[in-house]
C-alpha cells in the first residue's frame, strides 16, 4: 500500500505489519473494527450478535452473527495472521447450528445484543423501512453464508473453500486483511480474495434474482393485494389534502412517494401492519449534500409551529447516506381494515402539515446548497 503525495507526485510505501507485531487481538481489535463498520467486509451487513454461544449441547461460540440485505444469516469467523487449518470446518458447524433459527429467534438474539433499542424497528430500518412482518429472515430456500477473515489463508483452506463453492454451492467468502503503519497512524486493507470481486458480485445478483423469483408464498401475495387496496382508497384523499401524488398509482409496496420539485427529497406515506408514518426523506445521492440539507433544516427547527414540531422525529440513518424527518402513528395499521378511513385521514392530514411546514424552509435552504 502506498501513500500518495499529490504535490510532490511521490508514492510513499507504507510499512506492512502483522497483527502480532502490533500486539492487536482478534476479539478486542479486529472484531470490534468489523462491529463498528461491517463495510470492512465489502458489503452492508447488520451485526446481530457477537461471541454467540446459543447452541444447545455445545460450548462453542462463533465470532459474529449478521444479516445481509437478502435476509440471510452470515457467520463471520475472524483470525489474525494465520487462518489456521480448521476454520472452514469450524464455520460449517456454526452455520449448521444456525440453519434452523426462526425469524422470531433471530429477532430475540438481536434484541439481547441491543439491550435497549427495539430489534424489530432496527431490522425494519436496515431493510429500508420495510414492514417488519413482510421481511423474510433466514429463508428456507436461501442457505446461510460464511465470511472468513484473516491476514493469510492456508492453501488447504482456500482449496476447501473453492471446492465447497464451485461444486456444492456453499456461499463462503474469504477476506484478506492487512494492517499497515505510518508513524502513529494505523491503516487496514481489506481485500476479498474468494470469490474474485467482479465474479462474486455477479453470483450475488444471480442468487438475489433466484430468491426473488421463488418468493411466492400465499401470505406475501395476500399482503401485496391488501396494500394495493389500501393505496387505492388512500390516494384520492392524499391528493386532495396535500396537492401531491398526482402521478402516483396504487402499489403493492408499503410506501408511496410524493415530490414537490426538489430532486432527492420526497414526502413518503407509509403503511405498516401495526401503524403508519408520514415522512420527508432526504437522499440526493450525495452523502455530503444530504447532510448539509438535513443540518440546515434542523437549524431552522425553531421556525416550525411548536405544536407540530413536538411530534417530529429527526433521524439520521446509521450506515446509510440518507436522512428522514417523520411523524409516527401507532393506533392502527394495515391489518385493521375497519380503521382504514381513520388511518388515511391521519396520513393525509399529517402529510399536508409536513409539506406545509417544510416547503418554505426547503425553498430557503435549497438556494444555499450547491
Key words describing this protein structure:
single chain; 370 residues; alpha+beta; Trna Endonuclease, Chain: A, domain 1; Yope Regulator, Chain: A; 2 domains; seven-stranded mixed beta sheet; five-stranded antiparallel beta sheet; 24% strand
Just give the CATH class of the largest domain.
Alpha Beta
Class per helix and strand makeup:
alpha+beta
What Rg, in angstroms, do the CA atoms define? 24 Å
Order of helices and strands: EEEHEEEHHHEHEEHHEEEHHEEH
How many H/I helices? 10
Overall helicity: 25-40%
Say what the CATH topology of the largest domain is: Trna Endonuclease, Chain: A, domain 1
What are the low-pLDDT stretches, counting only 5+ consecutive residues below 50? none
Biggest sheet statistics = 7 strands, mixed
* CATH architectural type of the largest domain: 3-Layer(aba) Sandwich
Average pLDDT reading: 89
Which percent band covers the strand fraction?
15-25%
Counting structural domains, the number is 2
In total, how many beta strands?
14
Distance, first to last CA: 35 Å
Shape: globular
Summarize the structure in words.
The protein is of the alpha+beta class and about 375 residues long. It folds into two domains: about 210 residues, Trna Endonuclease, Chain: A, domain 1 (3-Layer(aba) Sandwich), CATH 3.40.1350.10; about 150 residues, Yope Regulator, Chain: A. It is built from ten helices and 14 strands. The strands form three sheets. Strands 3, 4, 5, 6, 7, 8 and 9 form a seven-stranded mixed beta sheet that branches.
Write the SSE topology.
Elements: E1 2-5, E2 10-13, E3 15-16, H1 26-36, E4 46-52, E5 62-67, E6 73-78, H2 87-98, H3 103-114, H4 119-126, E7 145-150, H5 155-168, E8 171-182, E9 185-194, H6 197-214, H7 218-242, E10 255-259, E11 265-272, E12 275-282, H8 287-299, H9 306-309, E13 313-316, E14 323-329, H10 340-368
Parallel strand pairs: 6-7, 7-8
Antiparallel strand pairs: 1-2, 3-8, 4-5, 5-6, 8-9, 10-11, 11-12, 12-14, 13-14
Helix pairs in contact: 7-10
